[in-house]
Structures are given as structure tokens and as C-alpha cells.
Design brief:
Helix content is 35%, strand content 25%. α2 links the parallel β2 and β3. It starts with a strand and ends with a helix.
């Protein structure tokens, strides 16, 4: 099996069906990928909606442990040679798996593929293309990156940090190379309840990274983001 798609779901009844349908609609042989959905103690109708797909997906139902723990649980049970995470409120372009897998198969020196994305704001009904940029880890998401499975054996799983994806990619870059596909194949949905909208989220996440990696390491990645985008949301913390 070539790919394991992991979906972690917590109280996402509004979005889970679209996320699942986007994976099932992939231009990729159904025999070549599996879908693992982790219901992380949802208290709404999420689990019942997942069960409507139970003949096509594997469901892991657990008490609420947080999305990082849910991801790590499912990563340890995958069968695929490659792993991609899809947040339950987001969805994939139908070409995502086909193009990303093909790139890894044709480029053995690379251990992951990441793409540009669309940000879909359902509050103000807008959509915007996001150019991630080469090695711009502060513009990546934990979701939407296709990793070779063995990467997790080498550098470990996600840590319970606010910026778990940035921490993981710092560890990744110290061991492996990533392939940047300049096509928007992931849809990130902004709905006003995203974790990133919480008060103090960015400052707390910055401080956690700073404590773990030190000023020189973190400011290196801020500089890369600034060169790629002309600015960085973290510049204000560097001045503090």
C-alpha cells in the first residue's frame, strides 16, 4: 500500500463529510491507499458521520486526548509506505495523492513533498492562494505534507506543542530533504473557531519553540520566511 491518509476528528460534524469525500475522490487507485480516522472523544455527531463511511475507512474511537496524541496513535498503526495528515475541517484536491506520491517515487533523495494551498474563509466567503515557499517551515501546516513512513521512525512523532508542525519540520530538516511542489493541492478552511484564532496562541507557541530550540535556531527560520514573503508574523517577538 502506497499511502495512509490520517484524519483526526474532534467535534467537526460540519466538515468531516467533505474531508472524507475529498480523499475518496482522489485520482488514485483505491487499492493503493487507506484512510484512518481518529475520533478524539467528540461530543457532537462526528462519530456517527464517520460510521457512515465505515466500509471504506478505519475508525479509531478514543477518549479525548488532543489532536497530537490522536495523530501519533494513528501514525503507529498505518500500513502505507507514505503518510499524509488531513485535518477534519480541511480537504484535498483530487490530484494530491497522485502527484505527491509520483514525486517521491521519482525522487528517492527526498523524504517528503509539500505543496501550496488555498485558504478558504467561510466567514467572509473568500478564497486565497498561499505560496508556501522553499524551506519556509513557518508557512507549512502539519497537514498536507506527504512523508515517507520511515521518517517517523528516525526522528520520532509529533510533540505536544502548540507549534508541533514547526518543531517536527525543524527535526526533519536536520536529517532529510523536502520537495516543494508549487501547486495548491490542499484546502485549509478558516471558520473562526480554528485554534490559531485563540488569544495569545502565536506568542505562546513562539515561546515554546524558543525554549526548546534556542534563539539562533528559531530566528534562522524567521529569516527564511521573511525572505520568502517579505515579512513574518514572528518579527514582533524577535524585537521583544
Amino acid at each position: 500500500m502506497k499511502v495512509s491518509v490520517i484524519i483526526t476528528a474532534y467535534n467537526c460534524e460540519r466538515f468531516i463529510q467533505k474531508a472524507l469525500n475529498s480523499v475518496l475522490a482522489q485520482n488514485f487507485s483505491p487499492q493503493e491507499y487507506e484512510i484512518i480516522a481518529v475520533n478524539d472523544g467528540s461530543t457532537d455527531n462526528t462519530l456517527n458521520l464517520l460510521k457512515e463511511f465505515q466500509d471504506k475507512i478505519t475508525i479509531i474511537d478514543q477518549c479525548n486526548k488532543g489532536f497530537v496524541e490522536a495523530r501519533n496513535t494513528s501514525i503507529q498503526s498505518v500500513k502505507g509506505e507514505n503518510v499524509i495528515i488531513l485535518d477534519a475541517d480541511d480537504y484535498l484536491d483530487k490530484e494530491m495523492l497522485c502527484k505527491a506520491v509520483n514525486l517521491l517515487e521519482c525522487n528517492p533523495d527526498y523524504q517528503c513533498v509539500y505543496t501550496d494551498r488555498y485558504e478558504v474563509d467561510i466567514v467572509d466567503n473568500s478564497i486565497k492562494r498561499i505560496f508556501v515557499g522553499k524551506d519556509n517551515i513557518f508557512n507549512m501546516l502539519a497537514a498536507g505534507v506527504l512523508f515517507r513512513r520511515h521518517v517517523f521512525d528516525v526522528i520520532g512523532l509529533y510533540e505536544d506543542l502548540l507549534f508541533e508542525e514547526y518543531d517536527f519540520m525543524i527535526r526533519f530538516t536536520k536529517k532529510f530533504r523536502s520537495y516543494y511542489l508549487r501547486e495548491p493541492l490542499y484546502y485549509y478552511v478558516k471558520h473562526g473557531s480554528n485554534m490559531t484564532a485563540q488569544d495569545g496562541y502565536w506568542e505562546r507557541g513562539w515561546n515554546q519553540l524558543l525554549k526548546k530550540w534556542g534563539k539562533d535556531e528559531i530566528e534562522k527560520w524567521v529569516s527564511i520566511q521573511s525572505m520568502e514573503e517579505g515579512t513574518s508574523r514572528f518579527l514582533k517577538f524577535m524585537k521583544g
